[in-house]
Design brief:
It is a single chain. With about 500 residues, the chain is of the alpha/beta class. It is about 50% helix and about 20% strand. The two termini are about 85 Å apart. Bound molecules: adenosine-5'-diphosphate (ADP). The site of adenosine-5'-diphosphate has 21 residues, from helix 12 and helix 13.
Amino acid sequence: MSDDFNQLRILVVDDERDIRDASERILTRMGFHVRKAKRGDEAIDLLPDDNISIMLLDLKMPGMDGMEVLKHVREQDPKILIIIITGYATVDTAIEAMKRGAYDFIPKPFEPDHLRAVVNRARERLTLTREAKRLEEQRKRTLADLDTEKSRIRTIIESLPDGVVVTNAEGQVVLMNPAFQWHLGLETDIGLGRPIEAYVPDESLCRLVREISSGKHVDYDDLCSIEFSPFSDRYLLAKGQPIIGEKMECLGAVVNIVDITALKTLDRLKSEFVAKVSHELRSPLSTIHEQLAFVLNEMVEEGPKQDLHMLSRAKEKTSGLISLIGDLLDLSRIEAGAVCEEPKPTQVEKLLENIVDFLSPRAKTRSQSLTLQVPNGSLPAVTADPLALESIFGNLITNAINYTQEGGEIKVVVDHTGINLRIRVEDNGFGINEKYQEKIFERFFRVKDEQTRYITGTGLGLPIVKGLVDSLNGLISVESTSGKGSVFTVLLPTAGAADG
Ligand code: ADP
């Protein structure tokens, strides 16, 4: 900074030579570059080339007086700080000069210290002005940067293929991109600021957005998603997240919308294909199975041992394949919505009693206990196709038996909670690692570890169970700890609740 000020130029304008020379001496020692002028017009001529920062200006001079010089300088270069040199008698004039834009004044005769103090003040003022200017420029630059950043982000959001909509805490739309408008078939000039319901026709998505916006889902990991269909043949998946402020308050919601129509169509085609192939395979396979059974019967007595063994294995395999095909066909029917064709009020506890009776011998062969706990008194009925219920609980209890060690314990517990019947299938078996607990409901997923490796299965049981529970407007969940056991909980709306 001092370097900067060594460069500062000061012009002393006075008709008295002594004052000019004395000032020059003092100011040079202060580090200024000093220029001198003995008349007003001479000073004005110097200005354009000399880059003057401070001017010491005598008011009383022959020819052009100080006041006139002041006027000129103010017009020519208002940045120059002018310090008026004046006699005591003309202090009023000095004040007048300050009103017209002079920075300060110093009465004649002056002491060197006085001059130094006045000039130092002017120098500080220059420093402050420069600093303020620098900060102002920096602020402008930052604002310009922010502006560029903002428009860059806006461009990115606008060009995203996925729809994006942002709401405030009141659930009003504050931002949306063209993809969102396109996905929902909105007019391009619909504008912002209206409640989410004005833009989205799906009630459950609007409810979700309102819930997130008002701060009900503050957990960032808890990404809520909803599938909906704004028009026939168009399927969208919406994922919503809260926008959390600095004080951890919820500022609104941001919802991302993806078109999943192609995936849905592919999924449907895949299911139709699987259904068709399974159907075509089933009859020839059943025929082979029966023929094998027939040949085996004939051979039991006198046939060679090796052929007998081979054919038995072939028969086992065909029976495995037939059960796989059965599962695939069930799954296709569930996915096509063709289940629960004959719903009727069913007492689930009675149905469970039959299933437990039926599966008890299997549990016994593994020395497992299999028990059913039902509360005293009557339970409300569930309106459902009994075959669907049998499939749900038959699968869950069979799994509990299969994935529990010999001597283990399996409990089926029924109770009534609010509008639902709750059925828990509990075991103290192998358990399921947390990372697989969602995957086990996907088609063909099987956990393969040391304990389960040799257990045969198709990986289709739980997807069937989930499909059936969904079709009954129920819920299924699992809690499990590796090595400790699993609990599958099914909630089914009771007949009264469904009617209501
Ligand atoms: P499958 O039993 O034919 O393999 P499922 O869809 O019924 O197919 O089950 C998928 C996987 O979930 C099983 O392979 C098993 O690893 C796991 N699983 C299901 N039920 C249990 C249970 N009660 N205890 C431990 N693991 C289970």
